[in-house]
Amino acid sequence: IRDSTVLVTGGAGFIGSHLVDALVPHNEVRVLDDFSTGDPAHLPDDATVIVGDVGDPIALQEAARGVDVIFHHAAVVSVTQSVDNPRQSNRTNLEAGLLVLEQARQEDARVVVASSAAVYGHPAELPVSEAAPTDPTSPYGVQKLALDEYARLYAELYDLPTVALRYFNVYGPRQRGPYSGVISTFLEQARADEPITIEGDGQQSRDFVHVSDIVRANLRAAVTDAVGEAYNIGTGERTTIRELAETVRDATGSSSSIVHREPRPGDIRHSGADTTKTARELGFEARVGLESGIRSLVERD
Ligand code: UD2
């Protein structure tokens, strides 16, 4: 998109900050972030930063004034944290999301919401399509599902252009911290020549999608006519955690051993996107395969 005024909530976070980078050259970009997990160092100078909680109506109103599009990426991303404190994550993931939709209604703005493969829980069929039953297994998944449904409903009830993007396992530069995902954990371990820790037998699988593809999907969602819909954002390829461990070790030239620990309680066994609807209706396909994505991560720093 070009020549638009846009708001990225959670714009200092992992996904949000990459999106801000892509938007800044051609648009007026505002970022609303409370920097609870986001990093100011990731923000380009040309973005206007509003420091605040997305759940604070005053801060949100200020940040959203006159915008054409809101990319809603502010969230409590840790599934574990949502299990430990469901009401706290509900406030950010659902209540604040609803506030964003309401604010968009005031401004007549388009909204792209960050949804998740977590809405499917343990998928009954693989790859999982958007028409599959939703059956989340965590408060995080329930919150993302409710937001995803609200987005659809706002399109239906109020004619608000909304799009929900159901991200699979996202990875890439700037992903770090205790809840940051298996690829960043394995990379850190490999770089330090420490054991790479597989939880369980390593035969569980995931659809790993590079953050640059997530950005491209958001840019499509900002202009598509196919609104009021949810779209899977993955590559359509599944990789086992064992294969991932070996790929990371090879790519880094590390001498790490690969060890197994207790499986994670409630872990999803397999997750993979059916990308048919996204390709046909949103006109988006992922470009970055796992091996080249990991290679570019290794070459970076
Ligand atoms: C991802 C999302 C989560 C939610 C969920 C939906 C991330 C970081 N999290 O959770 O937000 O959307 O999908 O289902 O993308 N593992 C190891 N060793 C480690 C760390 C992880 O073996 O040191 C395993 C882990 O047990 C799991 C797999 O790797 O089987 C992926 O774990 P994850 O935390 O990266 O992501 P996931 O799929 O639990």
- By CATH reckoning, the class of the largest domain would read Alpha Beta
How does the helix and strand content classify structurally? alpha/beta
Named once each, the bound ligands are: uridine-diphosphate-N-acetylgalactosamine
Which ranges are low-confidence, i.e. pLDDT below 50, for 5 or more consecutive residues?
Answer: none
CATH topology group of the largest domain: Rossmann fold
Task: List how many beta strands DSSP finds.
Answer: 13
The number of domains is 2
Q: What percent strand?
A: 15-25%
Tell me the layout of helices and strands.
Layout: E1 5-9, H1 14-23, E2 28-33, E3 48-51, H2 57-64, E4 69-72, H3 79-84, H4 86-107, E5 110-116, H5 139-158, E6 162-167, E7 169-171, H6 182-191, E8 196-199, E9 205-206, E10 208-210, H7 211-221, E11 229-233, E12 239-240, H8 241-252, E13 258-261, H9 276-282, H10 290-300
Parallel strand pairs: 1-2, 1-4, 2-3, 4-5, 5-6, 6-11, 7-10, 8-13
Antiparallel strand pairs: 9-12
Helix pairs in contact: 1-7, 2-4, 4-5, 6-8, 8-10
Uridine-diphosphate-N-acetylgalactosamine binds next to strand 7, helix 6 and strand 8.
